[in-house]
Structures are given as C-alpha cells and as structure tokens.
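dumping these here so i dont lose them again. two proteins, back to back, each one seq then structure tokens. dont judge the mess
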Amino acid sequence: MEIIMPAFACLIIIFGLIRRVPVFEAFSEGAREGFFTLFKIAPTILGLVFAVGLLRSSGATDALCSAIAPVAEAVGFPREVVPMAMLRPVSGSGSTALLVSVFENCGPDSFAGRVASVLAGSSETTFYAVTMYFGSVGVKNIRHTLPAAVAADLTAMAVSAAAVHIFFG
C-alpha cells in the first residue's frame, strides 16, 4: 500500500518522458498556477472561516439549533443531529467532529448515530465548495447554484431520517 503513490508519481514521470514532455517545467508551471489560485481565493476562505468562528463564539449557532430542534424532532429528525446538520453545509471538519460527538453520546448504532452517518455521507459542505470552486475561477454571480445546493442539503436531512426509519425501523 505504501508504494502506490510513489509508483504513481514514477509512472507519470516515465509517461511524460516517453511523450517528450518537459516534466519538471510542466510541474513547476502547474504549481505556480496552483499558488496563484490559492492566492486569489484566500480572502474568500478567510472570510468564511471568520464568519463560522463568529457565529459559533457568539452563540448564534446554539440559539438557532435550539430553535430548530423541536421542529426537527416533530418531523422525525433526531435532536442530537441538528447541530451537525446545521454545520455540515459550512464546515466538513466541524461537522465530522459533531458526528464523532453523536457517536460518543448516542452510539453509532443508535437512531441518531445512523441518521448522522447517512447525513454525513449524503450531504456536502455547500458554502465551502461554492466558495472554493467559484472563487478559483473568478465567478461572481452564482445564480441558482446556492439555492439548489441548499435544497439538496435539506433533502439530504429529510431523506437521511426517512432512510434510517425505512431500513432500520
């Protein structure tokens, strides 16, 4: 297993040499373009990270989760998973930490643990992805992308609870 990545890199170099591609120059140019892309999207990513930190430290996310939890529970979505569902569109690592918290508090085979697992696998870090992908190519007008992506995240929430009910009772 440990040889896969070095072997893959060697294959790329050998293939480039066979095709008479200046391998190091091509690598350097790609790295340069990657650096400039990173430089171009860094302010947007920093803004997103700042906004998430601000919402969490101000208690706004806790207040929002407390307000949403009774409604979510009334429609069959477990209260314990609401914070993860709220954070998932914004932060992958943060939502993964909350997934682990659900596992520790409720157990991975509990209803909440199963819903959290299905939700983690069926949803996306929407705001992060839109920020990265659109920011990297310089798109300013995202039109229908964000509403469609948020609708997909809400669908993932509803379907994750329904799927666990159907398959696990």
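---- next one ----
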Amino acid sequence: MTITDFHKTKQGRIALYVDGDFAFSMDPEVFAQWKLTIGQELSLERMEELFSQAQVKAAKEKALQLLSYKEYTAQELERRLRRQLQPEACALAVERMEELGLVNDEDYALRRARDLSRRKLYGPARIRQELRRLGLDRELVEQAISLLEEDDQEKIRSILAKKYPDALYDEKARRRAFSGLMRMGYQADQVRRALDCLEEGYED
C-alpha cells in the first residue's frame, strides 16, 4: 500500500490518500509521529495500526470535547463516541477519561440521585429507573440510593400539599394523587400511609 497524497483539512486534520484513494484522516500529532511521506510503502498490518492509533486519538479528543459541555456516565460517553468511531477506540478513550477523573460513575450516581430526590422529589423506584437509564451499574445505583437521607414520607406529604390539595376531600383527586406518586417512584403502602395520616389530621 502506497501513500500517494495527504493534505490538511478545514478541520485541521490530515487527510491521507493511499493508492490514489482517500483512506482516512488523522490528528497532525499522529501524522508527525509516523513521519509519513508521499511514496512511502505501508503493509496492511501497519496501515491498520495507523488507523487504530488515529481512531484512539480522535476518540480521546471527542470525549474531551463532549465532557466540556456536560457530564456523562462511562456508558453514555462510550455510546456517544460510537456514533462516529470504532468501538475499541471508544472504550480506550473512556478508560482514559476515567483515569483523568473526568468520568466517575460512583460520584455521578450519588450526585444525580440527590438531585432527583431533592429537586424533583422522586422516590427510590423512579430514581433507580432514571439512573439505570443512564447506563449506571446496578450496584452503584443501589449504593447511591442507600446514601440518600431524605424522608420519603415527608416528601410525599409535601407533594400532596402542593400538587394534590383536593385529595383530602375528593375521591377522584385521591386516585390521581395515588397514581401520580406511584409514577414518581413511591411505594403503594407509603402513599396510602401519607394519605391516611393527612385524613386523620383533617378529621382532628
């Protein structure tokens, strides 16, 4: 396989041509490391090695770019990178981000669980569902939920007062409150207990 041309793209990468056809592009750093020249012969194995190195470099750069805008779990980041790059390169890039401390699923799980609990007032079941949807490991999810210090009954009473004030007087409203709280991740017996306590307080 013969390198027949290369040039810098508008994106600042080096486009490589082999045997007259475009092969792939790479970061200038990778290009410089390989000291590539027109007319240079590369075996298939060496070409594959070059391509893999170029992909890993691109994956790391893309990962850093993505993380500069928002936080990702390891699985989310790898899934995002795989839209454009090789799976092996993406896995290595994510591993490097973890080494740098830019991706930390354990820390993310706890902070996200606290946010969902305090800001959205979700119950454990809904928090578990949301964290698993983000690709977090089941063990990390359960650990994060176990560390929450919020009082679920207090949260349910707060939700009832703000969103379902008519639940004390109207059976239809009570059913809506029950369904809504279940969707928010609370257990049926917790919701019933909170409703019963409110009714008892009202009767008093």
